[in-house]
Design brief:
Length: about 100
């Protein structure tokens, strides 16, 4: 039958390399350094890319997150702030 739409899986599993962890931090922040160490370890183990963003260089991020720094996003959604739990981040990145 022509014109039928293909059927897509409702939620496709995402490969680690298709995920993205974002660390929103500020200079001279010890909690940020701690968070980055956890992110670097977990992302290296799982093959997940990560990026760092500095709130002192981005007014919008500063307005949104300045009371919560460091903030960790997974695929653009807030995962946690202040302290990063390694096991919880690992679970978030390996869940379907």
């Amino acid at each position: 039958m022509a014109g039928m739409s293909p059927i897509f899986r409702r939620k496709a599993a995402r490969a680690p390399e298709d995920r993205l962890v974002t660390l929103i931090r500020k200079p001279g922040c010890h909690l940020c350094d701690d968070a980055q160490a956890v992110i670097e370890k977990v992302c290296a183990d799982l093959g997940v890319p990560w990026e760092g963003k500095d709130i002192s260089e981005d007014a919008e991020l500063h307005r949104e997150y300045w009371e919560q720094i460091p903030v960790v996003l997974v695929d653009g959604e807030q995962h946690t702030f202040w302290r990063v739990d390694e096991a919880r981040l690992r679970r978030a990145l390996t869940a379907d």
